[in-house]
Amino acid sequence: MVVLKKTKKTYYVTTPIYYVNDKPHLGHAYTSLASDVLARYHKLIGLDVFFLTGTDEHGQKIEEAARVAGKNPREFVDEMSKAFREILPKLNIENNYFIRTTDKKHEKTVAEIYQKLFEKGDLYKGKYRGKYCVSCESFYTEAQIENNRCPACGKELRIVEEETYFFRLSKYQNKLLKYIREHPDFILPVEKKNEVVAFVKQGLQDLSVSRASFDWGVRLPFDRKHISYVWIDALSNYITALDYSPKHPGKKFRKYWPAVHVVGKDILRFHAIYWPAILFALGIKLPKTIFAHGWWTVDGEKMSKSKGNFVRPIQLTERYGVDALRYFLFREVPFGNDGDFSEKGLVRRINNELGNELGNLLQRYLTMVEKYSNSRIPKISKQYLKKEIQKTIKDYEKAFSRYALHEALGVVFKLLAKTNKLINDKKPWELAKKNPKKLEVLLSSVANILSVVSFLLFPFIPSSSEKILRQLGYKGKTDDKGFELAKKFKLVKKNQKIGRKEILFPRVEFREKTKKEKEGEILKTNLKTNLNLISFEDFQKIDLRVAKVISAERVANSEKLIRLGIKADRKRTIVAGIYPYYRPEELVGKNIVIVANLEPRMVRGIKSEGMLLAAGEKIPKLVFVDKNVKEGEIVR
Ligand code: MSP
C-alpha cells in the first residue's frame, strides 16, 4: 500500500535586506517584526513557513561608508551585517535563514542571472547620462524629479554619464500592467498599488544595471569590466536564498516560491516594477504579494543623522520588554500607514492595554481559581461568550488575510474587554456563596477564553502568550495543534492545576525629559559625531592656508573626484570629491583654503596632500578667498 504523506501548504515571507551603512533602528526593526508576525501567524494556522531576512552589502554607497570608517569593505560589511543578525533574537524574531549579498553562493547565482538575461537579449550595452541619486542608487527621469531632488529620499541628484548595461524594463511594461490588473492582491495596500500603476503608465525607461567605475559588487561574466549594479543583485536574494539558479531552480525554490515581500513604501517601486520584470525575463512566477508599509517618524520628526534622533529598538526593549514594543508597533498604527513613535504612547499602551486589560485579567482570574477552586480549573461544557469568541476568531483571521494587523489586535482586545465585563457582571465573590455551579461555569469559560486569546496574541507577543498558557497550566507547544485545541475549548483539561502566577506587564512610569536632559542628549550625540570640542592648542596645530588653483581635471573612472594642482606654501596635488558641484575649469585661478598639514593619503593611486575647506553637508560649497590675498598666507 502506498502511504501518501500529507504535504503542508507553504508560506514564504521576506523582509527587505538591509543596507549595512547604517545600524539597525526602529524602521528596520519594524519591517522585520511585521514579517515575523506574519510568519508566526501562518505557522499557527498550519502552514510550512520559510522566513527570510538579511543584509544588502554591495555597491558604491557601502564602499564609500567603509572608506569613511577607515576599513576595507569586507571587514566593514562583516561587522555591520553582524549587528543586523544579532538584533533578531533580541526582538524575538524567528527567521529561517539570513542571507548576505556577499555570500559566495549568492554572488555566483547573481552572475548566472546576468548571464541568462544577457543571452536572452534583455541586457544591452549603452551610455547613460542622467540624474542619479547616490543614496538610492537609481537614475530618475525628468518627469519624476522636482527641484533636482530624488523622488524617493529627497536628496540632491547628480548628473552622471557612463557606459552601462541596460535591462529592457520597457519591454515588460504592458505585461506588468496586465498582471497587476488581473491579480488584485499582488500589490497592497490598494492606494500604493494605484501609485505604482500610475507610475508605470507614465512609461518605463530601461534600467541601468551595471557600472564600470567601482569594484565592490558582482563582476559580470560576459564583460569583466562591469560590476552588477545593485538592484538586480539585491532583489535576487529572495530566490538565491532558496538555492535557485537559472540552471537548477532547486528543491527549496520549488517548494516555497512565490513569496510575500514585506517592504517599506520607499522601496515599493523596486519590488513592484523592477523585480517583476526581472522575474518575467527569467521565466519565474511573480511574488504572491508585495505589501508596502508606512514610515515611522519620532515625536513628529523624521529620524536623521543631523537630528541624532534615531530610536534604537534594543534600548526600548531593555526598558519595556520585547513584547511591549512588538504590541505597540502593530496596535498604534494601521499596517500600511505612516505612524509617529513616542515613548509616552508606548507607556500608555503598556499600562492601559497590556497591563490592565490583559495582565490584570489574568491575575484576577488566577486569584479566583486559587481562592474558590483550590488552584484547579473546573471544566464545564457550558461556555459563556461562545458566540463572541467564535466571531473574534473569524474577524481575526479575516483581518490577517487583509494584512490589517492592528484590527487583528483590536478584535482580541474587544474580547478581553467583554471578558472583564463578564466577570464584573457575574460577581464571582457572590456566586461563591450563592451559586458555586455558576461560578464553575465562569471559571471554566474564562480559562477557555484566555487560552484562545493566548494563541491569537502569540504572533505579536510570543513570550507573554506562552507565559499565560503556562500559568493556565498548559504544558504543550504553542503550535497549530495547540491552536486547534484552544479553538475547540479543549486545551484546558478538567481540573488542570494552574501554574505559578507571574505579573505579565508591570506598570511602567513615563517621565518627560527635562529641557536640560534633552539638550544634554543632543550635545552627547553631537560630540560623538562631528562637534567634538578641541583645545586651543589643538586648533593651533592645524595649518590653514590660502592656496591658488593652478590646474584641475577629473579623475578617470570616478563620479566625483577632481585632481587639483595647487600652490600654497609649495606646489602640491589635492584630490577632492567635488564633481559635479564644480566643473574643473571654473576652479582654475581661484584662491581657496586648505588644511596644509594633513597627512597625505592615496586616492585612486594619486597622492593627495591636504584638504579643501568647504561648507554644506549635501552640496559642498568651497571657501574662496579674495584674489588679492597671496597664496601660502596662513588663515587665522
Ligand atoms: N537595501 C535596500 C532594500 C533591498 S531589498 C531587495 C534598503 N535597505 S534599507 O536598510 O535602507 O531599508 C530597509 C527597510 O527599512 C525598508 O523597508 C525601509 O522602508 C525600512 N525603513 C527604514 N526607515 C524606516 C522608517 N523610519 N520607518 C519604517 N520603515 C523604514 O532599502
General shape: elongated
Give the bound compounds: 5'-O-[(L-methionyl)-sulphamoyl]adenosine
Note the beta-strand portion: 15-25%
Stretches where pLDDT is under 50 for at least 5 consecutive residues are 528-532
What percent of the residues sit in helical stretches (DSSP H or I)?
40-55%
Please give a structural write-up.
This protein has 636 residues and is α/β, with parallel strands linked by helices. The chain is built from 22 helices and 26 strands. The strands form 8 sheets. The chain has a 6-stranded parallel sheet, sandwiched between helices. It has a 5-stranded antiparallel sheet with strand order 20-19-18-21-24. A 4-stranded antiparallel sheet has the order 5-4-6-8. Strand 1, helix 1 (26-44) and strand 2 form a beta-alpha-beta unit. The longest helix has 31 residues, at 343-373. Mean pLDDT is 92; it is low at 528-532. The chain binds 5'-O-[(L-methionyl)-sulphamoyl]adenosine (MSP). 5'-O-[(L-methionyl)-sulphamoyl]adenosine binds next to strand 1, helix 1, helix 7 and strand 12.
Q: What can be said about this structure in brief?
A:
The longest helix is centred in the middle third of the chain and has 31 residues, at 343-373. This protein is 43% helix and 19% strand. The protein has 22 helices and 26 strands.
What layout of secondary structure does this protein have?
Layout: E1 10-19, H1 26-44, E2 48-56, H2 60-68, H3 73-90, E3 97-100, H4 104-119, E4 123-133, E5 138-140, E6 158-167, H5 173-182, E7 187-188, H6 190-201, E8 207-208, E9 210-211, E10 219-220, E11 223-228, H7 231-235, H8 237-240, H9 251-256, E12 260-264, H10 268-282, E13 289-293, E14 296-298, H11 313-320, H12 322-332, E15 339-341, H13 343-373, E16 376-377, H14 386-401, H15 405-426, H16 428-434, H17 436-457, H18 462-471, H19 480-487, E17 496-497, H20 515-528, H21 536-540, E18 544-554, E19 561-567, E20 571-577, H22 584-587, E21 591-595, E22 601-603, E23 606-608, E24 611-612, E25 614-615, E26 621-622
Parallel strand pairs: 1-2, 1-12, 2-3, 7-13, 12-13, 14-15
Antiparallel strand pairs: 4-5, 4-6, 6-8, 9-11, 10-11, 16-17, 18-19, 18-21, 19-20, 21-24, 22-23, 25-26
Helix pairs in contact: 2-3, 11-12, 12-13, 12-15, 13-15, 13-17, 14-15, 15-17, 16-17, 17-18, 17-19
The protein binds 5'-O-[(L-methionyl)-sulphamoyl]adenosine (MSP).
Residues 16-19, 27-28, 30-31, 56, 234-235, 237, 263-264, 266-267, 295-296, 303 line the site of 5'-O-[(L-methionyl)-sulphamoyl]adenosine.
